[in-house]
Design goal:
The complex is a heterodimer of chains A (233) and B (579).
Chain A lengths: L2 E8 L9 E8 L6 H11 L19 E4 L2 E4 L11 E5 L6 E3 L2 E2 L2 H8 L20 H6 L17 H5 L5 H12 L7 H8 L13 H5 L6 H16 L1
Parallel strand pairs in A: 1-5
Antiparallel strand pairs in A: 1-2, 3-4, 3-5, 6-7
Chain B lengths: L1 E11 L3 H11 L6 E5 L15 E2 L10 H11 L6 H21 L13 E9 L4 E7 L5 H15 L3 E4 L1 E9 L2 E9 L5 E11 L20 H8 L4 E2 L4 E8 L9 H4 L3 E3 L7 H4 L9 H13 L10 E4 L4 H8 L1 H11 L8 E10 L3 E2 L5 E3 L6 E7 L4 E2 L11 H23 L11 H12 L6 H15 L6 H18 L13 H25 L17 H4 L1 E7 L5 E7 L13
Helix pairs in contact in B: 1-4, 1-11, 2-3, 3-11, 5-15, 9-10, 13-14, 13-15, 14-15
Classes of the chains: A alpha+beta (233), B alpha/beta (579).
The complex binds flavin-adenine dinucleotide and FE2/S2 (inorganic) cluster.
Chain lengths: 233, 579
Amino acid sequence: MPMVTLRIQRFDPENDQRPVYREYAVNADPTDRVLDAINSVKWYQDGSLTYRRSCAHGICGSDAMRINGANRLACKVLIRDVGAKVTIEPLMGFRVIKDLVVDMEPFFAQFRSVLPYLINDEGAPERERTQSVHEREVYDDTTKCILCAACTTSCPSFWADENFVGPAAIVNAHRFIFDSRDKAAAERLDILNDREGVWRCRTVFNCTEACPREIRITKAIGEVKKAILSSAR
Amino acid sequence: MIHTHTYDALVVGGGGAGMMAAIYLSRESRLRTAVISKLYPTRSHTGAAQGGIGAALGNLEEDHPEWHAFDTVKGSDYLGDQDAIETMCREAVDVVIELEHMGLPFSRTPDGKIAQRPFGGHTHHQGQGPVRRSCYAADRTGHMILQTLYQNCIKNGVEFFDEFQVVDVMLAEGRCVGVVAYEVATGDLHVFHSKSVNLATGGFGRIFSITSNAHANTGDGPAVALRRGIPLEDMEFYQFHPTGIYKMGILITEGVRGEGGVLRNDYGERFMERYAPTMKDLASRDVVARAIYQEMREGRGINGKRYVYLDATYLGAEVIEQKLPDIADFCRTYLGVDPVHEPMPIQPTAHYAMGGIPTNVDGCVVIDDRGTVVPGLYAAGETACVSVHGGNRLGTNSLLDLVVFGRRSGLHMAEFCLEADLGSLPENPTRDVAAELERLLSVAAGEPPARLRQELQDTMMDFVGVFREEEGMRQAMDKVRELKRRYEAVVVMDKGRRFNTDLLEAWELRNLLDLAEVTAASALNRKESRGAHSREDFPNRDDENWLKHTLAVQDVDGGVRIDYKPVTITQFEPKERVY
Ligand SMILES: Cc1cc2nc3c(=O)[nH]c(=O)nc-3n(C[C@H](O)[C@H](O)[C@H](O)COP(=O)(O)OP(=O)(O)OC[C@H]3O[C@@H](n4cnc5c(N)ncnc54)[C@H](O)[C@@H]3O)c2cc1C
Ligand code: FES
């Protein structure tokens, strides 16, 4: 097995003044995940290396981090795609709790702020509410979000202003705004028309590039902007 | 530091089962409810479920809850309790509609109804041929269930303690009075005093080396209960899913075969035609997993190796991109294989625990063959054994189990809490766990826990896997006991208090060791083959002696003692099982 060097940003606020980089050499197959390499450091070299992980196949959103400068899920990037020396750092824009673990509370607060649930008080029918294949297709893309925060923490507007609601929250608002069964689009559009809402987006496309679920985020944000404009008319 | 909280109802686990229970509890405004979860709820492994949730909606063709019940009983190899199965299949229709009303974005039929597809073991007219029963949202049904339930928890204002890991359940005077949890961010212990607790901590596939389960699936709920004297039911029945990605274990949903994908051996032969003439690739999972093993053993694995092909190439790009987009993504990412053009290399992967904490249909934990409950203690989801899956679970029936029994347990808990008072706490409730965590931290040098874990997983895979026999299982038992001894001297390198996942992984290893031991002991004890439990030295099902559930308890000296309870049979007499 070839050797790979992981250069990892370490920071334990209990003991460290500022973050430092440590290097670890590990054996890794080209087809191993970066997460496997990080695990091997933790399990056999330095147990204090700290990060979140669970599913190990890109579905739970635990292990978003900066890998060679780009926001990625460590379990969805293979060693062969990152070279023999990999730099690994925490997501930018949230407080570091320890090493690669950042405080996700503000992120979930942004999520909650857009009413991310179906609202329809019209009394449900006995069977399912029907929805055509086309109506379902309109918001399909934004149902894929796993709340990993890779998009929000790649956004320059968010780095500049932590109160910006951020792409992930907009994606989740989009998912309901364009769901034919939902009745609260106007309320959500109102929330996103706020100073800290969609207009902070400068269409840089970082979010779309960062999304491990390949959601066309910038497109979704554009659709929300359009909906605000046409509802204002 | 120790913190104390008081609630009426606590749900441990923010997966599908836990959140469904929490939603029902939150509707009773007189009760204070909290969900405690070691992961952010949306990180739970329910999100990994792909294929669908079973319900006889009959949206595309005739179907009935009774047919669903028959298939489930047959799939269980007649070990499932038929009253519980009837309840689940009857409530399935209603609960799937309820999920749709909550906002779940199901895929749709041309006339706008919930879309359905065939799945292994699901048939019409009691075995005549496949039926479209699995309700799905592309190949991310579990993701959509998890998101929808989390969204509804937010809507209902459910209180969450995220990244709090439950490390003990408190029992006093024969009832449950709360849990002890470890706050991951700070390392503080919290005593949660409550009238009732619902353990919904998911599965424990991490006792095996090749698994579809998340790193977090370490069986904390059953392990903690076991160590407090609660028996575990039918632990010998562990499901191996036929199609995991070779070497990685990542699941490729049965939905691929539901859509028409087929298994092929090294000669390109569609070998399931030989093993299951009617249902072929859609026979139940135990049957297909054994067939794959048999092919590999007889040298017909691809290039003689330990995998076969799952071929979806002739489904066409459109079906794959529309109905199986995540599967396509997994194959491209992890294998560099495009399933539109090439077959996928697969091998069976440890997937699902049919066994677990014994409960009745209301989620109440039941500790013996007479239906004795522990007041205030509930379990739901993969952690629980109702038992609706018996010896082998059908695909789509776990998601169904989560929501049906999550709901039922939530409702029953609410009723219980409105009546019950708050019991008194045991003396010094954190003593045992605090001592154990301190002990783990105090070892200065020794073996890394990860090495023990790897040895455990390899041993279980080799000797307590798809095929089993006496000698191998004895070896596995010896190995697990050796590892338990070595566990006393493992070293936790991180000595800090903040976000010490090194310590928690070591603590979780103990759970894996306890559950592996009970699994191996239960398997060694059952001298027949039934469902997923397949013994080469006892190849036949033996209804005369073994049509009964296993109840395994941990003895004071740490060994395993085995008891039994009868299977409930209502309308379906045990028959030979052919697909
Ligand atoms: C890859 C895959 C695909 C599947 N596909 C299907 C399918 O298509 N159809 C189907 O019916 N079934 C499927 N299954 C099975 C089904 O998804 C699972 O059995 C089910 O989701 C388990 O749900 P749960 O709520 O019991 O547990 P989980 O969703 O695993 O949730 C467990 C929860 O418990 C918490 N927890 C664990 N330990 C602790 C602790 N010590 N303290 C506090 N909290 C704790 C976790 O944080 C988590 O929130 C699939 C399973 C897998 C692995
Ligand atoms: S560990 Fe779940 S997304 Fe990477």
